[in-house]
Structure formats: structure tokens, C-alpha cells
Amino acid sequence: MIDFKIKVAELIFESVKDMTIEEISSSLEAPQNPKMGDCAFPCFKLSKLMKKAPQVIAGEIKQLIDGNRGEFIDKIEAAGGYLNFFFNKSSAAESVLNAILSEKENYGRSKAGGGKCIVIDYSSPNIAKPFHVGHLYTTFIGAALYNMYEFLGYKPFGINYLGDWGTQFGKMLYAYKHWSSEELVDKDGLAELTRVYVKYSAEAETNPALDNEARLWLVKMQDGDEEALRLWKTFRDLSLEEYNKCYKRLGISFDSYNGESFYNDKMAAVVEELHAKNLLVEDNGAKIVRLDEYKMPPCLILRSDGGTLYPTRDIASAIYRYKNYNFSKALYITDARQSLHFAQWFKVAGLMGYPFESDLVHIPYGYLMLEDGAMSTRKGNYVTADTVFNEAAARVKAVINEKNPELEHKDEVAEQVGIGAVKFVILYNSRIKDVVFSLDKILSFDGETGPYVQYTHARASGVLEKAGRDDFANPDYSLLSDDDSLSIVKLLSQFTEKVEEAVQKYEPYVVTRYVTELAQAYNKFYHNNKILQAEPGLRKARLALTYGVKTVTASALALLGISAPDRM
RNA sequence: GUACCUGUAGCUCAGCCGGAUAGAGCAACGGCCUUCUAAGCCGUGGGUCAGGGGUUCGAAUCCCUUCAGGUACGCCA
């Protein structure tokens, strides 16, 4: 397809030698008011270089390039220091829709990534604890970025860095031994483990001796005690089994489940290396790396009892991943409270001489609270992910029964729309905002929501289905010259650049908002124009446009991990 | 105390590598289903872009500062 932006940039470049073609291209913008044009070049920066008023420059450029603007631009106007380009509606529609008609669901894909590996560390729940709404942000953002990188020609590698080792397991083992049993765990699974963990936390408040007992269990694990390891493995297997049910429901899978325990035997080498490179300093019995020079508190590597810490393990894992996956970037998707931790150990990796320091990226997201306060597994104040999805599906089913009682496969559609609604809300705003989790807010289905976009897709599908197959090949694109059609065509042409922007910002919402805009544009078009009842030529052109909307909507939703049912 | 994040319409948020009249959804109010799915479309009202300085031809956007809310700062992860 024609990239209009590049065409315009090339055209301007013919007469403006003070800027590179890339500079021109990146300064191009879309006027807020479409009546002012489809693409605008601001001349204010040139005004400094050329020492002339921007209005004058715009006029001069217009004079120079107007003659050979080609057939894809109808008109060039100089207005208020801007140079405004009006696309030829027919050739715009033709280039975009022809590309979609031939490339179908591959439309928009790019090879720009060149197969470079992007390691994405996401989801990463602590095993033996429930998978709750607090895990949804990292899980959905990670999965969406994974899809987008793949779409752009990278080779993403998803790692679920399970929290499967550490002091919490000492507590868990103590709690299990005292208050639970194999039968109870068989019966209730993670819920039972969580029950005794919550009990432990409550008891430990008043009885500090428990923590010593728990520590003994951890020591047993570290020393390879048979019973401790057997229980640990049982809990780990059980957790993975339950998580995988949930991941399957969400359509998410990982390339690796190497968790914290995987690095148990890889940390000693890191400590040794830090020591050899003279980075370790003893302080109050602990070993630290000083970071004063970088205006950060020191990074703790070894406890005073010789035990390792979170940063030690993360450095070991980064080195392992670099050696084994040769990543060009490694993304860590965690909540913003861990920002300092990541900044610290990234710096330590750099001080160790690892060149990949600059390729390590922490992608923080905001704090998620429940309506009745902070979420805490320890205190038993949490909402499991399944609870939310079940409720979502149930509410969607009620809407289906009301609006479309004849629908087939109601349960399946309710599941797709319900889960889509939850994903959509979470991927709709910038990550960093703190959120109060409210079922009622997440599960409203009007306006800028997942169901709205899915509904639009189902509408388009319905029209195409009624039209019959291939009824829209080789249409007369000049019939799509109205404003409603053109705004859709412009949006369709922006698909790839929106995905690129999302990846560049590590913000899936760019795509979420894009697909919402596309849905709004199509709904407006749909309302104002007959499609199936239009006269044959027009009908064909509008069906091609409808096909474009359906295809790109489904692709964009797929990038977000959201299904696009054909009926709902 | 130090550092980071946030502050835009009643609510939830876009816009922030400076550019044309600050946008959207929800909520409120008023219209549109004998016509391709009304989970839709159209309209009305609603703003000191937290406050104050500065840089600039031009600031919601960049810099400084104050305020408000949140978070993190040695043996948890």
C-alpha cells in the first residue's frame, strides 16, 4: 500500500533541503479539523532556519511542489504557517483497501523487527497463592506487547518468572504441617493453601516465634530435605495446574516457566564475580554494592547470614537470559513500587561490565486497590481472577438473553465478550495510573468498551455474511469519497504505525484507543449509509470498506488478546 | 529527610519529543428503531489544563518553585 506520510515527506523534501526526509516525516501531523486537510506540515521550525515568516515559507513550498504533487494529492493549501495536503480520496481508498483485500489478516504486519529477540518477563505470580486481579495488569500488558512485537517482525520470548522460592515457602510449609493435610489440599487446592497462609500471617502477628519455625523449614528446603522438597514440588505443580487453567481461559501461554528456584544454583557465580570485580562492600555484616555515585541507595547482594536476595537472583537471571536468548531487549513488567529495585540492579549489571544494561527495561504500572482498601493475600483481602471472569461472563449472558435471545453458542460468546471487556478496560489507559478495582466499572458495556468494539465487529461481520462471499472484489473506489468513508480509510492506513507507537511507548492502550476510534468511525458510517440496499456499484465499494474494518478490527483486538466474535 | 509517580469537564481518562478553536466515554438533559444487530447514532450543557514564576513567535506540553495525593528507600520478593 502507499504510505501517504512518506509520499508527502518526499514531496516536501524536493524543495526543502534544510531538513532530512525523516525530520520532515516525523513533523507531519494530522490537523484536528479534517476540513483543513488530511496531513499538515508546520513551517515554524523552518522559519528560524530560513529567517522568513512561516506563512511565507508555506506559500513558497506550495508554489514549488504544487506542479508535481501526483495524483494521490488533490490539493495543497498554505494556511497559517501550515502546508495542508488533501489526499485524493479515491486513490487513498484504493491503496488501503486493495492492500487489505489481498493481505487479509496479515494486513499491517511488518518485518521491521528483523527477528530480534525481545524477552518479556510478565505475569510471574507467587506460587501457592491465588491468581488474583492484581496479576491482571502485568499479564495483559505482557501478552499484548508480546503479540505486538511478533506483529512487527520481532521474536518475542515470554517468561513467567514464577515466585517459587524464598521465605514465604518456609511459612507455607509450617502452616501446611500444622493446620492442613493432603486430603484438604486435594479437595480445595490453592484455596486451602491460601487459607492456612492467611492463618499463619494472623498468628505470626502475636507469636513471633512462628517466624523462626518457618525459617527452619526454609533451611530444610535449601539443604535438600526430602519432605520439604516433596511438599514444595507438590505445591508448585498444583499452582501451575491452576494457573494454566486460567491462562488457557485467557488465551495466554509462555515460552518459559523458569521461576526463582531455577536460579538457585546460578547465584554463587554472580556473587563471586561481583567480588572479583571489587564491587562488593561489607556493611553491617551484609554485602552490598554502593551506588552513591548514581544517587541511589546501595543494592543488597548478600544478607548478613550469607543468604541471597532478590537483586542477586535478578542479576543471575538476566545474565542467563542474555547468554541463552541473546535478547536485544529484556522487558520486566511489574508494579511501579519496584522501580528503585530495578534501577539498582540494572546499574549493578552495568558496573559488572555487561553491555546489555541499556537493553534492560522496567515497565511499571500503577497501584491496584480494591474498593475496601489495599489488596493483600496475607490478610485474605483479594479477588481471584476467575471470580471476575465468571461474573463478567454472567453479566454478558444476561445482556445477550435480553438483546439477542436467538443467538447460538451463547455461553461461548458470553465468555469471549466478558473476558474481552476486562482486558479492554485494563489495556485502555496508560499503565501508570493507580486504579480502584470495581466490578461495576469494569463491566459496563456502553461507550468506549470492549463490547462496543466487539459489537462493531459483529455488525460488520453480519453485513458481509448477508452480502455473500467475494461480492466486493474490484470495486469503484471513487464511490468512497464521502467524509465518513474517508475517515475510515485514513484510520485503516494508520494501523501499523499505531502498533509501532504502542511498542515504542510500551503502552498497549495506543492500539486499544485506535481500534475504538475505528469502531466509532464505522458506526457513524453504518448509521448514515445503506450498504446492502445501496445500488450495486456503491454496495460493492461499501462492502470492501466494511471488510477492511472487520479485518483490521479483528487484527487489532487479537493484538490485545481479545476475541472478535462474528455474532453477539 | 531523599527519590520517583500522579494532578486536564461532576466522574474515568486521552492529548505531554512545544503548534491551528484543549478532546473522548460515563453521568445529566433532548432527539432517532415498519429500514443491513439501538451493546448503536445525533444533539445540548459542562474547563483558571492544581497554583505561581520562567524560556519561546507560540506552553496543558519544556525548566524552576509551591501545594495536594500516592509510592519506594538494607538484610521480604
Produce the secondary structure layout.
Layout (H helix, E strand, L loop, with lengths): L3 H10 L7 H7 L11 E4 L1 H7 L3 H12 L7 E7 L2 E6 L1 H15 L13 E5 L14 H16 L3 E5 L7 H13 L2 H7 L1 H17 L2 H14 L3 H25 L16 H10 L3 E4 L2 E4 L9 E4 L7 H16 L3 E7 L3 H13 L8 E6 L2 E3 L2 E2 L10 H19 L6 H17 L8 E3 L1 H4 L7 H18 L15 H11 L1 H11 L3 H20 L7 H24 L9
Parallel strand pairs: 4-5, 4-9, 9-10, 11-13
Antiparallel strand pairs: 1-3, 2-3, 6-7, 7-8, 11-12
The protein binds one RNA strand of 77 nucleotides through α3, β8, α14, α15 and α18.
Write structural notes for this entry.
The chain has 568 residues and is of the alpha/beta class. It contains 22 helices and 13 strands. The chain has helices at 4-13, 21-27, 44-50, 54-65, 89-103, 136-151, 167-179, 182-188, 190-206, 209-222, 226-250, 267-276, 310-325, 339-351, 385-403, 410-426, 439-442, 450-467, 483-493, 495-505, 509-528, 536-559; strands spanning 39-42, 73-79, 82-87, 117-121, 155-159, 280-283, 286-289, 299-302, 329-335, 360-365, 368-370, 373-374, 435-437. A hairpin with a 2-residue loop joins strand 2 (73-79) and strand 3 (82-87). Helix 5 packs across helix 22 (536-559), helix 6 (136-151) packs across helix 20 and helix 19 packs parallel to helix 22. It binds one RNA strand of 77 nucleotides through helix 3, strand 8, helix 14, helix 15 and helix 18.
Outline: globular
Largest sheet: 4 strands, parallel
How many helices does DSSP assign? 22
Query: Unreliable segments (pLDDT under 50, ≥5 consecutive)?
Result: none
Count of extended strands:
13
Strand order of the largest sheet: 5-4-9-10
Evaluate the radius of gyration.
28 Å
Structural class: alpha/beta
* Residue fraction in strands: 5-15%
User: Please, what is the average pLDDT?
Assistant: 93
Distance between the termini: 32 Å
Helix fraction, binned, reads 40-55%
